[in-house]
Design goal:
Length: 490
């Protein structure tokens, strides 16, 4: 019969008072054997629980020597090429005719590994000197200009203080790494003397004791005079601060999914919110993170007088249409540059084309991931269509115009198309493509011909930022700028 701890105490107290065992058994309603057991117990010190041993099924007994041999041999093999319980089970079935279930094999392997655990195994708590930073990427969605986009967040943490920063990018290239780190360094007023990465190909890669770094990141290190370290492959615990920060920042800064007019605006907001997180208490020290971060700041390296430009230059040949393929995307330098060699500058957000004199030809937004659409600047096609107005119907330029303007140009003859494109060419250079074409569409909606002067004035108005909702624009004031014959015809 089971005797509770309270009854055991009562037995010993009554025995100490000289009460006979038979009377103790009667009073407490327990057996005399229980009274004798607990009354005569010499050591009442707490004892560790007895290990639970599952009896080995007879079906597995003939195979224990085989399994022991496999697992013992594993100790000299790479960690990622050792037997799991599932692999042991599969080999027993295939090679030794085992007919039992998986569960006893799994229990036996688990017990064997527990009994043979080495002193050097497991994880140890790590301490980090002030100024040392850990770097990693994490993925999250955001709504940019009304479109939900999957972004890659560069997370930088200072484990001494647990201060955390994040900047979002379209990808995780070496250009993005250097751009994000430069922003963080500018924000905190100094460069981390040591950066700790995982086995990241965008910055560098570790094979055994050999480290291979990207050319751009090597320039970055030289510019800031800092050092880098790389964790062992598949060893996220070696940089646990940033591993935890990736999930923490995603849950706290990206839920609900943030909205922003641009990626630049999102990153500015994220940087401010990271600063505000510094006002919270450290999870162990119970003092504000910002107070501990003062130690990190004191250990930072001074910033160089010239900002680092995180760009990778490559020499590429354009196809006959003036397009250059970068990764899985085509970028249009312009028809005039067809079948020519160009210098391409790859940055985190832009692709820059340079001529043989290193003069900028075109700057296009950088696209990450596969797309079947050519990335182009519609303004770069105007001169080509002016020279070949009949090509307008199949031109990429048409795909970027408001439908009303495209339809109007479809109906126009070649001289009319040429005249319109010449009229908007300079305003587009001065104001931008979208405001000018929106102005032309607004004028057409009023039933008026899109004259150069009226387009230019309205485009200036549309391009100017102003508070409050958009108001109706009376286009009749622009009629005075059109020729008299035009006003009479209208």
């Amino acid at each position: 019969m089971t005797v509770t701890r309270k009854v055991q105490t009562q037995i010993r107290q009554l025995d100490a008072a000289g009460v006979p065992g038979r009377e103790i058994a009667r009073r407490l309603a327990v057996s005399r054997d229980s009274v004798a057991k607990y009354a005569n117990l010499e050591d009442c010190s707490p004892q560790p629980p007895r290990p639970i041993r599952h009896p080995q099924a007879s079906v597995i007994a003939p195979f224990t020597d085989v399994m022991d041999g496999w697992l013992t041999a594993d100790r000299g093999h790479p960690r990622k090429q050792r037997h799991t319980a599932k692999r042991v089970f599969d080999r027993l079935v295939a090679e030794h005719g085992y007919t039992g279930s998986y569960s006893p094999v799994q229990r036996w392997v688990k017990a064997w590994k527990a009994d043979h655990r080495e002193e050097g195994q497991g994880y140890a708590e790590l301490t980090w000197a002030p100024g040392v930073a850990q770097v990693d990427f994490g993925q999250a969605d955001a709504i940019i200009a009304g479109r939900q986009t999957t972004l890659q967040g560069l997370v930088v943490t200072f484990p001494h203080s647990n201060m955390r920063f994040v900047q979002m990018f379209g990808g995780h290239t070496s250009e993005c790494v250097c751009e994000g780190l430069s922003r963080v360094f500018t924000r905190i007023g100094g460069a981390a003397p040591v950066l700790v990465f995982d086995n990241a190909t965008e910055a560098g890669r570790r094979r055994g004791t050999e480290i291979t770094e990207s050319v751009l990141f090597s320039h970055f290190k030289e510019h800031y005079r800092l050092q880098s370290r790389y964790c062992n492959p598949y060893s996220g615990h070696e940089k646990g601060s940033v591993e935890n920060a990736v999930g923490f920042l995603r849950r706290n800064l990206m839920v609900p999914i943030p909205h922003a007019a641009s990626l630049t605006a999102l990153n500015a907001d994220l940087m401010d919110r990271c600063d505000r997180l510094g006002a919270t208490d450290h999870y162990r020290a119970k003092v504000p993170i910002a107070d501990l971060f003062a130690d990190d700041r004191a250990a930072l390296l001074g910033l160089p007088g010239i900002a680092f430009d995180p760009v990778t230059y490559q020499r590429r040949r354009a196809d006959k249409d003036g397009r250059v393929q970068i990764h899985d995307t085509y970028y249009l330098a312009g028809p005039a540059w067809g079948s020519r060699d160009l210098t391409v500058g790859l940055r985190a957000y832009t692709i820059t084309f340079l001529d043989d004199e290193n003069r900028t030809i075109r700057v296009l937004p950088c696209h990450y991931g596969h797309t079947s659409q050519t990335v182009f600047d519609p303004a770069s096609l105007i001169a080509h269509v002016i020279g070949k107005p009949a090509s307008f119907g199949q031109s990429l330029l048409r795909t970027r115009m408001p439908q009303a303007v495209a339809d109007w140009l479809d109906a126009a003859d070649a001289p009319g198309r040429r005249a319109f494109l010449r009229a908007i060419d300079q305003p587009i250079r001065d104001i931008g493509f979208d405001p000018v074409l929106d102005a032309a569409a607004s004028i057409l909606a009023q039933g008026r011909a899109p004259e150069a002067a009226s387009i230019s004035m309205l485009a200036h108005h549309l391009a100017e930022p102003g508070p409050g909702p958009a108001r109706h624009i009376d286009l009749s004031v622009y009629d005075q700028l059109a020729p008299a014959t035009t006003r009479e015809a209208s």
